[in-house]
Automatic annotation (TrEMBL):
NCBIfam families: ispG_gcpE, PRK00366.1. Binds 1 [4Fe-4S] cluster. This is 4-hydroxy-3-methylbut-2-en-1-yl diphosphate synthase (flavodoxin). [4Fe-4S] cluster binds at C264, C267, C299, E306.
Length: 349
């Protein structure tokens, strides 16, 4: 059972309220470079990003944001703002679909009220984002350390400021680089509010280590019904974040988009270059959006049976491979042509 949350909208994307868990990323370009930022947003949308966040550190960036918005109207665009309420106001005016800011650090109540007024008029939700590494010193001192309770207290303080202004189009994130701390914080807050959650493990690391850490942390929460939108934060080109997000959701049966690759771990019976073939298949199918199960197996004896639920697949023999569909053989193909034959069969589907 997924946690019941209120719904908010970022452009055409619903977050919470029973909507599918959405996948998002953040640009790594300098927002002031309009061409580079637009190109990266289009790349992210092309691989499935439904929400894209851009950093807005200064007035030059927010001016560029207006041009960026005009060139990528199809994506839910979120402005990441810190400390300066004027940047938030300008971002709303530029046409963003969401704001990521903490009302406690953009000025006094009058300045927060200005932002809330503009956001309400344009139907722009606000994400309150708490990071373990930047907790207010006052809260850390109160709890004696950076704890799940401290993170939740920080989030509730920021949310209370918005609620006092009768603004509830809110989603919340509670991120740390420590997986148990992140999981504990989300669990604790889930029992206190019904706002939708943006889930992720911040500063997770590079492509390999970060993928593991993010899959564990995000996976635990989603498996317990917690999470309405996710970002896999990686020190890597952001397109990998989107791919990883969908892989996590597919693994848990929450979304079906693109290819689910089934491949065996190899053993002494393998008589083809299975690692190379599986890697090439994965790379060549990355742009596929249709939900398909594709199997690449190393044993012609057990392969079709073990991958019976695959839509299509190959199972290797000595210098050849068996092409099969739904566990039934189609034809035998030389090893050198296995990948092309598999791709041709997928095209037929």
């Amino acid at each position: 059972m997924r946690r019941k949350t209120r719904a908010i909208r970022l452009g055409s994307v619903q977050v919470g309220g029973g909507a599918p868990v959405s996948v998002q990323s953040m640009t790594s370009t300098d927002t002031r470079d309009v061409a580079a930022t637009v190109a990266q947003i289009r790349e992210l949308v092309g691989v499935g990003a439904e929400i894209v966040r851009v950093a807005v550190p200064d007035q030059q960036a927010v001016q560029a944001l207006r041009q960026i918005r005009a060139q990528v109207p199809e994506v839910a665009l979120v402005a990441d703002v810190h400390f300066d309420h004027r940047l938030a106001l300008a971002a709303v005016e530029a046409g963003v679909d969401g704001l990521r800011l903490n009302p406690g650090n953009i000025g006094g109540r009058d300045k927060v009220a200005e932002v809330v007024r503009a956001a309400r008029e344009r139907g722009v939700p606000i994400r309150v984002g708490v990071n373990a590494g930047s907790l207010d010193r006052r809260i850390v001192e109160r709890f004696g350390a950076v704890t799940a309770e401290a993170m939740v207290a920080s989030a509730l303080e920021h949310v209370a400021i918005l609620e006092d202004l009768d603004f509830t189009a809110v989603k919340i994130s509670l991120k740390a680089s420590d997986v148990p701390l992140t999981v504990a914080a989300y669990r604790l807050l889930a029992a206190k509010v019904d706002y939708p959650f943006h889930v992720g493990i911040t500063e997770a690391g590079t492509l390999r280590g970060g993928l593991v850490k993010s899959a564990v942390g995000i996976g635990i929460l989603l498996a317990q019904g917690i999470g309405d939108t996710i970002r896999v934060s990686l020190t890597a080109p952001p397109r990998h974040e989107v791919w990883a997000g969908y892989e996590i959701l597919k693994t848990l049966g929450l979304r079906r988009r693109g290819v689910e690759l089934i491949s065996c771990p190899t053993c002494g019976r393998t008589e083809i270059d299975l690692v190379r073939i599986a890697t090439e298949v994965e790379e060549r199918l990355q742009g596929t959006t249709r939900a398909l199960k594709v199997a690449v197996m190393g044993c012609v004896v057990n392969g079709p049976g073990e991958a019976r639920e695959a839509d299509v697949g190959i199972a290797g023999g000595k210098g050849v491979g068996l092409l099969f569909r739904k566990g039934e053989p189609v034809r035998t193909v030389p090893e050198s042509k296995l990948v092309d034959a598999l791709l041709e069969e997928i095209e037929k589907l």
